[in-house]
Task: inverse folding
């Protein structure tokens, strides 16, 4: 991967296309394994889940201990340092306030024909939240998923989190408590997704499953899609920063590294109108990489997928940004509003130098579950709509049916759907007879 | 499948559960075939699409004739009888008006901490619409998909429709014209889905693909999901009618048959508080089945999957309805509003005896692409939101960062994401220094 790209260079288009299409993740093909696990859980329920948990997590469960008891949750959550709990609570409050504004309105109106039309939003009855057990266990993600569900009005929120070798994560449990998770099961992997989708003797099935996971979890979510709803299949994290020369290179370097440190497959890109500034950011990244705790991960991500792109003007930056359709987009330029207005595809935009992306990961309020891998071209971050569904409503009066019924009958006949037409005709005949 | 179920019968729960879980569709496993077709189209582009179209549709295309020319569309669409065109236009106008009201609002506000937060909705750049070529080619479905996309503001709408043996469907092309479809390609099957998702020399890739299709199309949509967005994978149609005894049995019979005639796998269920009325509807269905054009299809659907359920009261009817989560729900009772208020899961509700479901298929205004197979528990009918995505916005001031930054730093440290914390800390130090 080239580190520096110059929009003016003759090979720019080829280099930029390569950057866009870089395959950053090798998903192992685990589909057959996952299909077998799902079939096993459907057939044998708890027994299958318990066996698989013993095998993969080295934890012996019974139907009674599969679910964490309230006392156990409280005890583990109690180990969280007070400043972390306070920060989780501050974050939760801000996330809740943001998502409450997302609640869509019902509508109903009578149109000129006399038909009363509209729709109504209702929450799913039950949602399942997958929380990974390993290195990428983030209490902030528990808040983001669970609060969106609870604000939407989901009555029952069941969380699954594997506990390899029995270890509980206090901060994850504290976040679950704060967010109002109703049930917590110490299971993970494809077996947990199958249990949520199909239910077992102990775990009632849910209607929607969200949350990140490894290749097995992703494959399982894909497979149960249709039986239940799922959120997006998230890929490795990305940030694009558009910055002019009037920024502190170290701040921008840290913003880029805060994505790179997530994952060796993460991608951090800077687009700048100032080539010298771009070089300063690259230098600052190198400096920070000497001491950063996660320098091995962040360094690999930066080495393999990072890039600095020089452009002649911000209009070009916006065009390139829209081709990237970044998950996270930071705008650090003099007139952020003018630049933001040119952005058509991005998961989340962070405006101005006082808004590092990390604010959005924790305490900004907007959801940090965002579309990756260019899918911001067609999808949105997680929100209350993911836990709601819309029922449309229509009510005809005899007059309205007289006005529009004949057209329906005509179209039904043209589609050779006789009963459709007759169902309208029988009523029109009554009105006319 | 039992025809009559009585809520008071001792075996009711078992019979109702069997009704709920009836497997109505045997999807052949075509996944390997589809994977090969997609790989072929990705590798060879137009050449693969042309070869596959020759093989499956017996049509010889070139890159130049793949797309229908404007004159060809106009000529075919001109063959549509004037009354059908007028009906399509009436339908289009009503669908457009309904969907225009669905457009979500952008939002922006400054919160107590001084952070400016909000979101913005933008359309996908390009959408692809799959239209089947065989028996189930419905111009009304073209209107429903295309108008939702166009109202959302999709700039480029590309439609694919196979033309087996070269036959064009005039009404489908007229509907495409009326709805504002931008490009029409005479290709179908998994190869058309692959061409839309990945692009070929002739067909530019799209960002979102919607529309119904056979098992190959459904498998292809599942496979390209992630590369592009897709709508739901639709199953066979369903209707649930809740009716008291004060209805014309023939009207209800026709409403039930208007689903049954779609497909042998369709399902029509009546829940009634009046057992004698239920018997009258069954008799009326039998009578209509003697003469209905599509009696073979409708008869098979009714025989295999139809049911009439007697309940003691409407509260019970609502509870059963919510377990079914029907695609279409007709409420034909004295107080439809009281009953509608108890419905939590349904794709679309038709209120009162003057609102046959067929109105919703054509001219009601709401979309007729609706969640099937109990997926109304977690998903909605097609609408403008399917062609829009939301970008969240956050802008901190120095004061806002001072207020919430320390909590972000605390959480970043607790998640061992040092660069996240440093990106906030560097700015706070500047503010404090």
Result:
């Amino acid at each position: 991967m080239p580190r520096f790209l110059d929009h003016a260079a003759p090979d720019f288009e080829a280099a930029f296309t390569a950057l866009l299409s870089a395959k950053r993740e090798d998903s192992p093909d685990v589909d057959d394994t996952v299909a077998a696990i799902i079939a096993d859980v459907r057939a044998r329920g708890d027994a299958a889940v318990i066996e698989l948990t013993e095998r993969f997590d080295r934890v012996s469960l019974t139907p009674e201990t599969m679910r964490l008891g309230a006392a156990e949750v409280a005890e583990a959550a109690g180990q969280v340092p007070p400043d972390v709990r306070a920060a989780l609570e501050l974050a939760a409050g801000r996330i809740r306030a943001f998502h409450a504004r997302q609640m869509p309105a019902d509508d109903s109106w009578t149109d000129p024909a006399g038909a009363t039309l509209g729709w109504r939003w209702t929450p799913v009855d039950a949602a399942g939240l997958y929380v990974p057990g390993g290195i990428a266990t983030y209490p902030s993600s528990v808040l983001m998923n669970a609060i969106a569900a609870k604000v939407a009005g989901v009555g029952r929120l069941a969380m699954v989190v594997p506990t390899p070798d029995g270890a509980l994560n206090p901060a994850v449990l504290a976040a679950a408590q704060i967010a109002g998770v109703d049930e917590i099961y110490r299971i993970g992997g494809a077996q947990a997704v199958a249990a949520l989708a199909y239910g077992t003797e102990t775990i009632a099935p849910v209607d929607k499953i969200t949350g990140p996971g490894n290749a097995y979890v992703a494959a399982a979510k894909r497979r149960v899609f249709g039986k239940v709803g799922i959120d997006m299949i998230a890929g490795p994290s990305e940030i694009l920063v558009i910055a002019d020369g009037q920024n502190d290179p170290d701040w921008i370097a840290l913003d880029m590294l805060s994505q790179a440190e997530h994952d060796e497959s993460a991608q951090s890109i800077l687009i700048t109108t100032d080539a010298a500034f771009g070089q300063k950011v690259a230098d600052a990244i190198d400096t920070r990489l000497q001491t950063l705790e996660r320098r091995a991960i962040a360094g690999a991500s930066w080495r393999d997928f990072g890039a600095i792109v020089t452009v002649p003007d911000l209009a070009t930056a916006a065009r390139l940004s829209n081709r990237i359709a970044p998950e996270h987009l930071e705008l650090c330029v003099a007139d952020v509003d003018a630049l933001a207005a040119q952005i058509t595809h991005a998961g989340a935009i962070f405006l101005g130098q006082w808004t590092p992306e990390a604010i959005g990961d924790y305490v900004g309020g907007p959801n940090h579950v965002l579309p990756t891998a260019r899918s911001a071209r067609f999808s949105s971050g997680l929100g209350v709509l993911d836990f709601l569904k819309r029922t449309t409503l229509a009510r005809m009066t005899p007059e309205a049916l007289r006005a529009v019924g004949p057209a329906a009958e005509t179209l039904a006949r043209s589609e050779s759907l006789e009963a459709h037409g007759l169902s309208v005709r029988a009523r029109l005949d009554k009105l006319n007879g």
